Amino acid sequence: GGRKAPMNRSQRSAAAKAAAAPAAADRVPREEALERLQEAFNVLRQTKQGQGSGLEDCARAMGADALMRHPAADVRCWAAKCLAEVLRIFVPSPPLEKERMQPILELFLEQLALLKDPSGPSYTDAFGLLERLTEIRGFMLVFDCPEPENIIVSLVSTCVLAARPGKNQETYNQLENLMAPLLTNILGEADEIPKKALAELLEELVIDQKRAAQHATGLVRRVLAGLASKSAAAPINDYVNKALFADDEQKGAKQVQALGYNMAQDRLEGLLYATYELYSIHPSLVARVLPNLQADLQNANPDRRRATTAVIGQILAHCHQQAVDSMALATSNAALVDRFRERLGDADDGVRMTALEGTGAIMQSAVQGEVADLRPTVVAAESLRERLADRCLDPNDAIRLRAVEIITEVALESEAGLTFTLPILPDACRRILDKKPRVREACAEASSHLYATHALWRWTEGRFQEAQKLNWIPQLLCEAYAAFCSSRLGYVAQLEEHIEQHVLGCGAGLSDGQRALAMLGFYTSAAQGGEAAAHGLSVIFSKKRDCHKLLQQFIQLRIAKGAPLAAEDAGSMALVPHDEQPQQVEILEQLGRLSPSMDDKYSRPEAVAAHLRAFDAVRDKALWKQLEKLLDPLVQENTSQLGDSLQELDRLLRVHRLSELAPLVRRALLSTWLLPDQVAQLLDIWKGGTIEVLEEAPCSELVAAARTTISSLSKTFPGAFMPFAGELAKQLPDSSAEDAKVILQTLAAIAKRVLQKPVDENSLQLSTEGLSQMLLDALAVAGDVRSSRASMSRKVAKILLLLPSAERSTVCMDLLRWAEENVAGDIAADEASANAAAMALQLAAALLEWSKRHLEDFPQLEPQNWLKEAKKVLASPNSQRDDRRSDVQCAAADLLAVTGSTDDVTDVLLAPSTVSESLALTNSAGEDGAWAWFDPLPVHACCASLRALRLGCVQLSTKLLANLAGRFAASMACDRPTIDAENLLESLLTMKRSSIASQLKPAERLRVCTALPTVFALAPLKKHRDTAQRMLQGSLKAAWQGSQLELLDFAVACFVHFLSRLDIFKKEVSARVSAFPESSKVAAFFCEALLRSDAPHSAELLGVALRVCDRVRYFVDREDPSSDAVHRAGSVLRYVAEKRCPELGLQGAALLHGAARGSMPAQLFAIRQPTGAAPALPDATMQDARLPEKVLKDASVEPHKVKEAAGTNRAVQAHAAQALATPQRRPSLLKRRSDGESPEVPSTGSKGSVTAAAAEVEASLLRAKKPKTA
Predict the structure, then answer these.
(1) Alpha-carbon distances, residue 1138 vs 960, 1077, 1081, 1146, 1170 (angstroms)
(2) Is the peptide bond before 92 cis (omega within 30 degrees of 0)?
(3) Which end of the chain is more exposed for a tag (fewer CB within 10 A), N or C?
(4) Could you report the per-residue pLDDT of 615-669, keeping only the tens digit for each?
(5) pTM here?
(6) Exposed, middle or buried by CB within 10 Å (0-12, 13-18, 19+), for 469?
(7) Three-state DSSP class for residue 924
(8) What distance in Å separates the CA atoms of residue 85 and residue 45, rounded to the nearest whole number?
(9) What are the residues whose beta carbons fall under 8 Å from the beta carbon of 3, sequence distance 6 or more?
(10) Is the dihedral of CA 263, 267, 269, 273 positive or negative?
(11) Cα separation values, 715 from 707, 711, 901, 1180, Å
């Protein structure tokens, strides 16, 4: 059992001779041969190198054909093992004839071929043989063979076959570690590498899609890397060039014909990939190939250009780590980079896409590792960067999408990637406004992830300056939000989710201080943008505010009832409101309209209604309680507890299968954006104190940003600021002008929230001790100029709502007493007295306004004395052109608008005689003409009158509207400052918006918003005309698509009446002969807005205007029955409309046939009596100017009776074949038509019908050019 003692030399020689004796026989039995060979192998293995004396005969016997060519495989295996030992012992001169070397090497190759099957019985012996041959470099004997090339080729083939994947990783690594040096040594010693061997190696680098996993790429790469510095570079270059470019076109065509186009293209792509592999091994292996590839980038074949572009992109992107000189391709071959850059603008889409991929790889390489090591790649990437940005505007949306993805992927990679792509990153992400949805979605997602990766954490750490480089992302998201909502492009819910999660950090586990800083960063970044970003931010806040209010009302009503607010009708299975609960169902309908799903033009309202019905039917009290808790503005949860509450809400929604309503709930939740504990952190930053997440006191920029953010957020999230009302009020005495404004704005926002929903007054913690003086001091600081004095005074009055009733009256009277004491000061004495008088008048106006609007919340105040004081101030003209007196008069104008009657406003405030026209409406220069002074009172009086009209302090009248129009026209003179027109437009825009504070009736608002904007047709600046045009279009579109019948007819009739009262119209009427140029300009402005309000139905809209013009003949002006001005105004409008569309004007009286009645406003028009004044411009098509008395009576009804009149006339309208009728009332989201039928479509078959005319006019309008405007 022990180890045998080693034999001496004589014993080894005798044993070897005995073992090798059978080898001399021609035929050796297998068993005997194996026995003798194993004995000989044991002897030879124990013999040391160089001590083979006496074993020469044995060595020669091992090389006999009887053993090497024995039919038994195991005999040949043992013979090969013995020969390997012989070569080891007798190195470097084995006792074998040279003729026997080639058969011996062939035997070795036969055994090594067994390595391709690791599960074979001879694998272990073959692996041992490979180890021995590699150790002794046994294949070096190939150069002593007569045909060494064949042996080398066979060796390469055998090693490649054995080294292909299919084994476990350990075995594969062992084989590769042995074969790589073996082949490298043999091929390196060869004078010339056999072409077949070289082809065998390179074919392994050619990727074949069918057997890509069967290539011995790893072995080949190691072998070629070892040969790169030797003689292999030149033949490899020659071989690749010949494979790629040596074939002429005829041979290439034959290859395509034989193999098929796809196979030939695959072969080309495989060869090009092999070229890249060779370059990655060492650039010298393809140094002669690159010039040909550069020329091939301009090949006429687009598929070949695409394949070449792909490999050049990979080559340029590759960076060698072992040698710096091998990286210099991008710098040494600048022409190659230029040719590749040209492929980004190639005519073929596939080539451009491939160039994009290569550019992305180059940029990825440029931003990885140390910049110094990759400098050549950085140079190439910089040269490609601008062209890559151009691809974001590519006509192909797939290329635009990929360009955006490449740029954002590089930016997301690292901080270096962000720095590198920052010059083109904003332009790439602006494709969020692309016309293709998938491009918009990709940009939105990438932008939000960029902000979360590079900016959010900087904001949460207070690194204000570093985060500023990505402040354009919140601006872009807000701008896209507004665009998606206005155009109903969809993806609004996803945008809200991106902003909430990636910009505000909701759900990221941030603390209250970090969330506060994240909100600070979002608002500051968005507010710093342009007008579009600011508008988008206001749209986001307004939608959240409105949705929160409605959902909170619905939840409260639902909890109070304890049952669904709407029930299913058993007959029609449609959701119909209970008779006693129309308001609740209306809230549910409004919720459906505010759903983010409805911001998609392809959304289905019935699907939203179905989800809301399911939501209303839930009887799980846990869901309602959870929603009520999260919707409460005074939610007691802190930031750390909010995540658990939201997870519970999400679970409840999933349990009740209401996940489709998650976007609506997300929009309605204000607590996910801001909580009281986060407000506390913002207040600490504003005061300059340190918070937990900041290592040091905030910088001045951060303090200013906190001030601005608090001022704005308090309007949307007043509940979060409510617990800090008392703390804010205590800061008033020592605050600066900016801080005082912010405090007053915040307290006023809280008071507005209290006005809408009263809360416990003790929770506000607002003390009345010294409050009057604090408010006056803050007003003196914050309202030191006229532009802010009125706003700050109204906010002071609004703050009083935070006090209990008794204390509110006391503070209010204290403020009024102060105002009485200071209003009578000498304005001309000094500036302080003038400012005090202006502030006193403005404060009195604000207090009296709130007292008049909220009788139950404010003490009853006597306005007569203040009205007299206002008239007294306005009665004295500002002949000295004093700015201080102008400020006082503007404050008096606000006071008169609040306290005066409609006649007072019309005759005093808006009368031209009140103020010298030469000072009020004309330009006045100084003595030397170096400066100009304009009295702001006329325009301010118009704005104050519009505000009083909107708030219900005065009533709308024809004279008031006419005087306003006169002031509007005068303020738009060429010598007036443009700020006047801008202020008037802003007041009209505020009037157009429907707000809670507005007391104006819808019909009156429609009358004002369709009349006054038309005066801007006379404006000299195009931007003012365009703004008024958009405003007018919105009003007309709302009337056209409104829920009540014939609202558009009502709006057109109001415009005709308004036109008849304009000063320019009166002047033209009084002329002996007139073409009504100015009036036609105003009417054309109105018609243009009418046509643009709904372009697909422009013919119908214009037909409505003509119908009203014809109907006016049967009415007179109620306030001036003897005048035919309204008839002349109708003729002007009809002339403009017929000039705009002559085909429609031919219909004449047919427009009245079948039209609904009751659209003429009764407060403006009266039935024309037979003895009344005849129309000034009679219509030749009019057959009978007199209508039956019953028809005339039906044609003039109050606007609120429109719906009733339409109901009585429904049967007539259903059978009237006319296409110009305005739409019926819109069906409810939660109701179906009771009769189950769709509205009847009028027939167009009769010749000369209005429907046929409308269709013909539609075509003509599409061909007509836009008319020129004066």
Answers:
(1) 31, 16, 14, 8, 28
(2) yes
(3) N
(4) 999 999 999 999 999 988 776 678 888 889 999 999 999 999 999 999 999 999 9
(5) 0.78
(6) middle
(7) strand
(8) 6
(9) none
(10) positive
(11) 14, 8, 32, 59
